[in-house]
Amino acid sequence: MGDVLGVAVLGAGHMGADHIRRLDQVVSGARVAAVADPDPERAKEAVAGIEGVSVHTETAAALDAPGVGAVLIASPGPAHEEALLAAFERGLPVLCEKPMVPDSTGALRVVEAEARLGRRLARIGFMRRYDAEYRTLKSLLDGGRLGRPLMLHCVHRNVSSPPGFTSAMLVNSSVSHEIDAARWLLGQELTAVTVLRPRPSAGAPEGLLDPQFVVFETSAGALVDVEVFVNCGFGYQVRCEAVCERGSARIGEAHTMVVTADGGARAEVPQDYLVRFADAYDREVRDWVDATRRGRVTGPGAWDGYAASVVAEAGVRALGTGARTTVEMVERPALYGGTGTR
Amino acid sequence: MGDVLGVAVLGAGHMGADHIRRLDQVVSGARVAAVADPDPERAKEAVAGIEGVSVHTETAAALDAPGVGAVLIASPGPAHEEALLAAFERGLPVLCEKPMVPDSTGALRVVEAEARLGRRLARIGFMRRYDAEYRTLKSLLDGGRLGRPLMLHCVHRNVSSPPGFTSAMLVNSSVSHEIDAARWLLGQELTAVTVLRPRPSAGAPEGLLDPQFVVFETSAGALVDVEVFVNCGFGYQVRCEAVCERGSARIGEAHTMVVTADGGARAEVPQDYLVRFADAYDREVRDWVDATRRGRVTGPGAWDGYAASVVAEAGVRALGTGARTTVEMVERPALYGGTGTR
Amino acid sequence: MGDVLGVAVLGAGHMGADHIRRLDQVVSGARVAAVADPDPERAKEAVAGIEGVSVHTETAAALDAPGVGAVLIASPGPAHEEALLAAFERGLPVLCEKPMVPDSTGALRVVEAEARLGRRLARIGFMRRYDAEYRTLKSLLDGGRLGRPLMLHCVHRNVSSPPGFTSAMLVNSSVSHEIDAARWLLGQELTAVTVLRPRPSAGAPEGLLDPQFVVFETSAGALVDVEVFVNCGFGYQVRCEAVCERGSARIGEAHTMVVTADGGARAEVPQDYLVRFADAYDREVRDWVDATRRGRVTGPGAWDGYAASVVAEAGVRALGTGARTTVEMVERPALYGGTGTR
Amino acid sequence: MGDVLGVAVLGAGHMGADHIRRLDQVVSGARVAAVADPDPERAKEAVAGIEGVSVHTETAAALDAPGVGAVLIASPGPAHEEALLAAFERGLPVLCEKPMVPDSTGALRVVEAEARLGRRLARIGFMRRYDAEYRTLKSLLDGGRLGRPLMLHCVHRNVSSPPGFTSAMLVNSSVSHEIDAARWLLGQELTAVTVLRPRPSAGAPEGLLDPQFVVFETSAGALVDVEVFVNCGFGYQVRCEAVCERGSARIGEAHTMVVTADGGARAEVPQDYLVRFADAYDREVRDWVDATRRGRVTGPGAWDGYAASVVAEAGVRALGTGARTTVEMVERPALYGGTGTR
């Protein structure tokens, strides 16, 4: 399939270190060629025991290091725009963790830069598109057996929110996954959003509006509702039911073992996203490496990253006002034309 | 437990005939003493083979017939108010099919009449309160093990709508069950309603807004969302998930047998409410007969019938305007004080 | 449907008292006319508050009491034979709790007595035939959609065994339900039995061979295996999977509510047979009353009671020897011909 | 982690080609260094597009090819013994597809040869030990929370049997997976076996005894029953329920999506083992490559291969005689002592 792909990994924090392990040990056909992190010690630790990796503190130096043929961006969101533009300048294919760029203005600059290049280089790390359950659902919907999708009922629950998690982050961080998943599953843009706010759970930190109930309208008249509850206490649960004209399909309740004991039959619920989506991350990176080695850019792109930003921003406004808020997007550049959200 | 209860059944249509069969063959301790229907042939047919029943065309005559100790109202909704008032005049306990009275003004007159009497006589036929699954859920919520309920996610699906079914009827007929169930499960009033209207299914009759997505707010800040889809095609499905502070509980997916064949594992979905709620109807009438023979009036009462009417009317207005609509109710009379919605 | 059926209940212990309550309060069309128990105080307690019941210490006196039109035998097993023969003499229809007669010689005498009468009077209380899940499975098997049944995999688990429960009773008391259910579901006789004895559970009383694994062969070459485990600790669980030529069907895992909390999704398992089969008992007695009032004798009969005794005795021998043991039955009298096990 | 592992793959048929693809594209840290197949064209096809592979017709030549550090045996069973011994001579670590050696005499020679070496080199391809569900069950059983395992109820169903499949192969090919899985899950040897033969399904080829019901006894007094049905028609289904002293645990019914349509709720059943165990094969080979690169030999070994052969042979004899047949094994060499079956 061609040479082993040398990857520069930007960011050696939690996510970056996990991707470094994945590239080194799990995914065939790739190797970590360079790593950059403002903290050189952290970078060194993350690549300890891996041969042939150069360690940098600057993005540019890592991208220009010998053997680098692609970039994986796992630095904090605010650093993404600069990194993406630097990769574009060098013509390097990129896998960029979500959010592509936290604010839609910056996201638009990335879209415009790539559009100017005239070819796609960026894939955005919406890993749910690589989850086996989501893929099965997507394939069912695309097949048309159940007719047109009318509604998606989504649930996104975390055991507890990390320190510093804000009410806005329920929308622009947690629900951003559902935003992309809905756009992809339906092949439609989200055009308006309303956020309903039940009285917060006693289990949520003081002042956090948790749970929230977010309702999106789509360009083809479908509805997408999302319960987001980041202090549900009992597990990490991501469910999606697609209600179509001739039937309904649900994912998110798979389990491996049922134990009957103590008066009940019980199936474990995963406790975090790294367990629930472990295979999806592996498949995502494997697919990216395979495609890149074949010279192809596939998967969710810069337009999807931009769209997610715009919708999330509208959602945050809707959370503040309590009112239905329309989503205003620029026209989709020809580069992403037609099948961009598919 | 005292004498066998003689019941006057008003209305010998589909529902009335089913209740006549139930009183005659299923429920111990009661008998059909009289029946009234504008169509005397229909009434005679419904009681064919049952001894000791007098047949009438007028409500008053049936109520005054010998041996009548209670009334079961199964006539069309517009006839209910007069029948209830007639029963109140005679001091007869009543089981009245839903809707108690189709319009809230008439419903209020019933409430006021009973309040003037100073004692409860009416039970309203919200049969879900007698369904085993709903009762298990109610008991869990009341027990408090999962903390306070924050949201109810409800689904109400029918195979297909009968001729003449209107967009408003999705709210004031179908969803009226969820209105009562939510009030009862939560012990809260519904205070506002918004109706979202996805693009209708191709499987719905021309012009029918089906499905709809109805969101209620409650007096204690909980949310209740209801997908109502009366032409879903595949079955009769009533689900409810209560999301609480420390866990979630779901009902509506019980099944008796799983068949693995033809490449899949499959459980039947009931095809209509008479199958799904067969036991609930039996239990409802048995409970009413038992309580009545003991001289007690329990279960959902006139206030619940009134509340359901008011909320449904607000829902129909919300469907028309697309806007969030508040529910305006009179003050609850002392007769229904405190525990009326429980 | 004719007059209310007056029933003489023999035995006022746990089961008898429950049937008295059922006839009085649950089942329409019947009343308790007489009760007999060696302990008159126990009998009086069981019918306290019910009008028109005569209380006796002797079976004959109860059967001859005024108003008695049928008999329900709920006395201890050893008393059944005499009671059945006494009912036969008087031409009274009988519902006899299982076991019909504990030993097959006595059971055969009952069969012969009824055969001499030339008409069926006895129904045996194999209540599983009235359970909704079993009936759904029976109906599927009879419909033939899945082809011929090849195997039944059965599980019969109790939380704990009562004092005095012996190793033989796992076969001739617990598994006797599966013996009848298998004969009925398959429409075949059981022709041989092997009992395998894993090392007993530490949770079983000293000396009790628990669990056991019982394998039956049938007249048409099917296999029926039964795990019987009467000290499983976690619940009362009765499961049955029918493996057919074109698919498999399972019952016994219905549940009403799934609660997700504390890291898992959990459904309650019933804790005893009175919960699991509550509806089946009601339906059984209602069906018996209805049929009896119509002058019909239906349901499992004396032949089924005899067959269960013979198979259970072979099972107990097989438990003792560890060897495959054939079941030797007399020829089936014409009275039970052809469809007797159906 | 050290150098990339060069693997000689013996056999380029269906299984061999799949492993070649896996080593080339899926598993990180390994590469195909040589391939041997009596049919050189088939070998060339299997490695088309992969660089640096030498192609051979003889086992010895492949093992001696440059860059070979380990062997993966995927040739037909009868060729395994010679290949294993050749690998042992060269001190090469081996992953050998099951059966290790089809007959127990040959299997014993492999065990003895490895015991003489004094160190383990062989891992046997019992891939279920790498399946996520089996591992979860194993971990639960080892944890002891449910007490001692008393019984395993297993089901092994295939859609249809390939041409030439014999009645003996249901035991020594299909059930051989359960033989190893049971030994591993329980940490016990299987000591006796009985095969029950229901009347064959009309869906099975003429003369094939299908299904069969195989019952094993274990060294610690547990029971293992296996329904094997290789023409079940509806799917590939592998289930296992472990019944323990304080609870029961089941695997084999995971699914990703439930579709409600056409009157039922339905989950797909996988149609073949390559779908059901795709991840297990990947994990098995990845684990082998990782361990080998670290200089370790782990997983199921030659003793497990020998034990499976002996038990399967006893099973085939039991199938022929219909009688309970004891399993006679040699004493376990010290090399495999103590934890060999774990």
Automatic annotation (TrEMBL), chains A, B, C, D:
EC annotation from Swiss-Prot or TrEMBL: 1.1.1.18
Record flagged with keyword NAD: yes
Annotated ranges, domain GFO/IDH/MocA-like oxidoreductase: 134-249
Cross-referenced Gene3D superfamilies: Dihydrodipicolinate Reductase, domain 2 (3.30.360.10), NAD(P)-binding Rossmann-like Domain (3.40.50.720)
Keyword presence, Ion transport: no
A Pfam entry, by short name: GFO_IDH_MocA
Reaction catalysis annotation: myo-inositol + NAD(+) = scyllo-inosose + NADH + H(+)
Function: Involved in the oxidation of myo-inositol (MI) to 2-keto-myo-inositol (2KMI or 2-inosose).
PANTHER family: INOSITOL 2-DEHYDROGENASE, PTHR43593
HAMAP family: IolG
Family in the record: Belongs to the Gfo/Idh/MocA family.
Subunit structure: Homotetramer.
Name of the protein described by the UniProt record: Inositol 2-dehydrogenase
Protein source organism: Streptomyces broussonetiae
